[in-house]
Amino acid sequence: MDNNIRTDLAVEARELYKEGNAGEVPGVEVEDESSLNVKVTRVKIISQEGQQAMGKPMGTYITIEADKLRDRDMDVEDEVSRVLAKEMVALLKVDKDALALVVGLGNWNVTPDALGPRVISKLMVTKHLLELKPEYKDSGLRPVCAITPGVLGTTGMETSDIIEGIIEKIKPDFIIAIDALASRRMNRISTSIQIADTGINPGSGIGNYRSALSQDVLGIPVIAIGVPTVVDAGTMANDTIDMLIETLMKQSKGDTQFYSVLKSMDRDEKYNLITEVISPYVGKLMVTPKDIDAVIDDVSRIIANGINISLHENVTLEDVNRYVN
Amino acid sequence: MDNNIRTDLAVEARELYKEGNAGEVPGVEVEDESSLNVKVTRVKIISQEGQQAMGKPMGTYITIEADKLRDRDMDVEDEVSRVLAKEMVALLKVDKDALALVVGLGNWNVTPDALGPRVISKLMVTKHLLELKPEYKDSGLRPVCAITPGVLGTTGMETSDIIEGIIEKIKPDFIIAIDALASRRMNRISTSIQIADTGINPGSGIGNYRSALSQDVLGIPVIAIGVPTVVDAGTMANDTIDMLIETLMKQSKGDTQFYSVLKSMDRDEKYNLITEVISPYVGKLMVTPKDIDAVIDDVSRIIANGINISLHENVTLEDVNRYVN
Amino acid sequence: MDNNIRTDLAVEARELYKEGNAGEVPGVEVEDESSLNVKVTRVKIISQEGQQAMGKPMGTYITIEADKLRDRDMDVEDEVSRVLAKEMVALLKVDKDALALVVGLGNWNVTPDALGPRVISKLMVTKHLLELKPEYKDSGLRPVCAITPGVLGTTGMETSDIIEGIIEKIKPDFIIAIDALASRRMNRISTSIQIADTGINPGSGIGNYRSALSQDVLGIPVIAIGVPTVVDAGTMANDTIDMLIETLMKQSKGDTQFYSVLKSMDRDEKYNLITEVISPYVGKLMVTPKDIDAVIDDVSRIIANGINISLHENVTLEDVNRYVN
Amino acid sequence: MDNNIRTDLAVEARELYKEGNAGEVPGVEVEDESSLNVKVTRVKIISQEGQQAMGKPMGTYITIEADKLRDRDMDVEDEVSRVLAKEMVALLKVDKDALALVVGLGNWNVTPDALGPRVISKLMVTKHLLELKPEYKDSGLRPVCAITPGVLGTTGMETSDIIEGIIEKIKPDFIIAIDALASRRMNRISTSIQIADTGINPGSGIGNYRSALSQDVLGIPVIAIGVPTVVDAGTMANDTIDMLIETLMKQSKGDTQFYSVLKSMDRDEKYNLITEVISPYVGKLMVTPKDIDAVIDDVSRIIANGINISLHENVTLEDVNRYVN
């Protein structure tokens, strides 16, 4: 089963499963929680069976969804930062002085892939201050360091090798890795944030640069934060065709014959066929919001704010909005 | 007939016509010319009938296509600059001292729409030098001025009003307007350049900001230079489905029933249906190359070089590569 | 008298006069007003004599100074935006529906000169909305349009010609022009804002691109808003030498001989000498803050916020911080 | 002796010594070589005495100077790239398959400090290709990887720690480190390149972020490439005053008294005094070219080209200009 080829989001892997099967995914527990503007879904993969069905490693995947983010309302943005911080604190079982290394994955120079580096640029980095300036002692600040390792194509090195090397030298207690993701649903772009305690595992993402950054590989806890910023072109065509068929059926244009033909093709078969016919382009093209520059700017601030208030005991969102941004 | 809703390129309007009709478009003359790397197509709309069939005003539309531009080979890029210059000189029937106003349309801050402003930033601007410094007299330089008027959403003004105001004051003899276009073929993105003596007329483009910039409106000749940098998402889905059906038929998966259903829908009906089903997203999404930043950088240099050598008698591509870029 | 060669700020022209003369400048009235964080100085040049002594046209020059801006505290930034709005409203004697054209002077691509264009990018532009969307009627929004005309070196056109052309076409009722200035005091950089009802007159500025934008030239009121972002290298050397001499005297290193020699040179003579000895470089060099990118970002937001709340009846700073930035 | 506080360039440390002393610096050997456009000076510090006098570690410091770089002539730029490559090959005594790690020091977001990261963005990175694609075997390409580690203020980590960690993991055979430097001569900015086999040692630089990157620390050869992009404000004032005095003496304005006073102050005393009087600002200000963005763009290409052709056996400058940039 290769769902992870088509989505980085556990909620979408689950959707894919449920399209083809009745009931909840075996070995998976799901919790929902909603406020007026924000919906939180916690998907826990608790067994090998669940791992198999979901195509993702065992662990907790929290998705924060807020359609209103599309309107760029700063109130909703602040609420999402607070929810992000709350969920991270719940996942992060670390001492308040534990050293954090925040890793901004992705490519500075490709806007939809620049989420990680942009978050780093808005982060409160404190390790050097706490070491150099005694007055910061007992300031309620946690030691935080950060790196933007770049991508395989520009460094020639596996990102995991760079991070492992830094870990050996700096000895952080845990890692937060931020990355831009690919979604299979156009309406999730820039409105969903996934937090996972399983770290980052090779998947589609935007580039193919991502090597695994997980506790197994690095030996310390790795929290991954991801936001869908692009849709794979093949996926988009696929979804469009499905929507088209449904609509045609409703309008009872087209007959059972027609329906049966495409129904008879299983999803992967159809996806592979589509990918094949558009392959000369699909590798070079992406589907992304027209205002992607502004979107990345907003979402990176939302995430940086969430991280800043979750990592430092005495830092409030007001402080961050006033003195950091 | 609303082809111009879906393409800014005359060669594509022609393709659309020929899909549904046998023979050449009535009232249209076509010339082809090819070298190893570059193909030139000159489409002349010479009658009301042609205008009707093409959904574009009468005039000459020259398309320069070079697939190798995708490989970013500087030899091919230089060749395209030279071809662009040659075709412009043929279209431009102006005195060698005639004052040129070059207009860079589009939005600086949206990468795929930034082609125009980027070209202006690489342009040899000489009007002020020729006026202020006598030593430039007889230097073989033409007086050239340039403006990036911005877009309706950021200026609150119609671009045509801004340009008309400047024309009244500066009195240029002709205008060259550069703009990013939308294509209906994914493989034309960043590999095709269209030059038209009809100026720019309201169409899809990338934004909806464009007001007409034509000789009728402005009273002086207007040469438009455009490059497709995005594909409309609906168009892409449509093309994908067509490719899919063809492939299915070849593989004789699917039966005549299946084929007939979609065949029975006429193109516009199908397009409108698709646009409708993806409408919640299509307005917000674009399909563009993953390396769009690099693409815009290259293409804007190619066009600026072409303009620079076509406007100034004594300026060669070597000069431009060495002293301007 | 050519003080305006060395400073764009009326408060500095006044300082220069008072260095050489006792008492207030004749033909000049001055008002001070201070809060904890912000100092406002209103210099009114009310006679030919004052114009002569100050080297600036008759009119009102308001300087807002806030040293704390150096610390990038958002509370102080908001206070400065409010003061800026209050002072502008006092200077602007216009109907609440009068059409505003905001002009962002300077060069996008030279960071210390990019203040004007950056302000425009953060501005609430409403003219097109009020025309196209009836629902905005009686929304308390003023019609505002905006332009970034570029600089002589990149357009080949005098900025005043571009603006005059647009005015003839668009017919705004008044103009607000934003520009980066040169200061003769290093400590004023990025901490002072000058508002003047005399518009913009040829002066040092950062580039030499600036043609006059004033009511005499344009026929409508012109409010100029400027912020010092660079110090002229010659000026800085000059100030340093003066500080050095003072210090030497205090430390009674150096004798009256020494002092008298430099004292005997009048200020302009000394300045010209310095400019001469460093002339091979002074033209190419600027003195600017190391964090100029961040400074321009902050100051442009402060000014855009001030303009946004001063122009639109029903817009508060909270609205702007939440929904515009 | 603290010359290295005021200059990163060995040629300037030598000038400083010779101002106060007759003859060549003891323990230092100097070679000159000039072409029409490019001057090469090789300063070899060969003894403890030389190290003492120069305030720099023993080793070879090669300075390439080309005033014409100010005119941005691509012919001269290419010549400088070739000279840079030739000098590097002479310093680099490594096997043709030895793995290179290129380190781009400095801060992406502060233009005059962005030289290192910009060079990396133009570099031919090959390590991953040589490992993944057998067809590159025997292509005459050397394995090259690259990193932009950021600065202490944004990472919270010492740059040397990051690099040491990566070295332990990746095991490169040698390092090339690129950094922006501070010069004490305004006319050297962007026209001089220094190559040193002593690596990078704590010094003024632009920021204070730099920890030592040398063979002693890292255990492998480290070639440092630096270009002056700023002048320290105190240095500039100092130079200006010296130029001023000379001029005054020539013009026999001022008497021996005057001269003797400043002559009687030794250089460091005067410098410290100046730094003190302008200290409130000097920390926050830099003196840099007005067209610094364009300068960094050009110089980073010159250096990247030089590195690309020096590291890869079969790569020519023509290849690089055509296929890399």
Automatic annotation (TrEMBL), chains A, B, C, D:
Return the broad EC class: hydrolase
Q: Which reaction does it catalyse?
A: Endopeptidase action with P4 Glu or Asp, P1 preferably Glu > Asp, P1' hydrophobic and P2' Ala
Q: Which Gene3D superfamilies match?
A: HybD-like
Q: Which GO terms describe its biological process?
A: proteolysis; spore germination
What UniProt keywords apply to this chain's record, in alphabetical order? Hydrolase, Protease, Zymogen
Q: Which Pfam families match?
A: Peptidase_A25
| Post-translational modifications | Autoproteolytically processed. The inactive tetrameric zymogen termed p46 autoprocesses to a smaller form termed p41, which is active only during spore germination.
Q: What residues does the annotated propeptide cover?
A: 1-8
Q: Name the domain of life this protein comes from.
A: Bacteria
Q: Which GO terms describe its molecular function?
A: metalloendopeptidase activity
- The catalytic activity of this protein is classed by the Enzyme Commission as 3.4.24.78
Annotated NCBIfam families: GPR
Assembly and interaction partners: Homotetramer.
Q: Give the family per the record.
A: Belongs to the peptidase A25 family.
Function as written in the Swiss-Prot or TrEMBL entry: Initiates the rapid degradation of small, acid-soluble proteins during spore germination.
Name recorded for this polypeptide:
Germination protease
Organism listed in the record: Mahella australiensis (strain DSM 15567 / CIP 107919 / 50-1 BON)
Which gene codes for it?
Answer: gpr
